[in-house]
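Support request, please re-run this one:
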Amino acid sequence: MSTFPNQAAPSNTSMAPTFLLVGMPGLSAVPSWWTIPLITIYLLSALGNGTILCVIALDPTLHRPMYFFLFLLSVSDVGLATALMPTLLGLAFAGVHAVPASACLLQMFFVHVFSVMESSVLLAMALDRALAICRPLHYPTLLTNVVISKIGLSIAFRCLGLHLPLPFLLAHMSYCHPQVLTHSYCLHPDIAHLACPGSWSAVYSLFVVLSAMGLDPLLIFFSYGLIGRVLQGLGSSEECWKAGQTCAAHLSAVLLFYMPMILLALTDRLRVPVPQPAHTLLSYVHFLLPPLINPILYSVKMKEIRERILKRLQPKKVGCAQ
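Re-run finished. Output below.
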């Protein structure tokens, strides 16, 4: 059983002065141990995604829809990992469980914004692959620069529009439960569960989940159903293999992002008796593994990205424009 210093008693206040976070189960006695993997994961994520961002930004030949979406995916990965680090490192280094409500709500906002951004970008990438494979002749006219710009603006509007009201709603809610969260970072469902009964924030939370994390994977797998039908109709196995390879990295990223989230949702809704350490670890996998693995996936699976990274790493090319 976890204990916290100065744990808040049940109250009926308009806003909790602090929220209390839980650390990694079983590691509270040795907080310095899990700083090493945390910092390593973050630095590798920043390095990998930063490399992808630089390669795409500096190479005009990569200024195409597929790589624009990959650029946005790296931005969301870096943003998500960065948003999680303050409380994770605070717990790991100093065992800081108490987080001011304002800081908690700010972290919650950025975590959810970048999560929805990643989900939206994965959906846009699925649309890109579906059009490239199902409508190859019309692809250049369908995904023009104007269309791509509108998709980018739609993603930004969707992320901010869905989550901008949440911190203000939660700041004016009454809390009737001890302000002890169940993770090492601040999430909207976690905070909303502490509110007094009768709050309509849960309804808005359900709308956000269904309109983003619920709808996006359905549309993504629908697009892959269309792709699968086209691949079945290809006469050449070589053409089928090449087309499938263009989707391999994206499909891997989709499974990596959504599978832990789906498993977490199922265990919560079905009340499966999962040990708390396993539940916490699955949550970490959902948030921290995609930013670490996605750059590796796209560097290995996408020939153009791999070649340009290797080209820039060659010693003889240091200081040269090409």
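The longest helix spans residues 101-134. The two ends are 59 Å apart (CA to CA).
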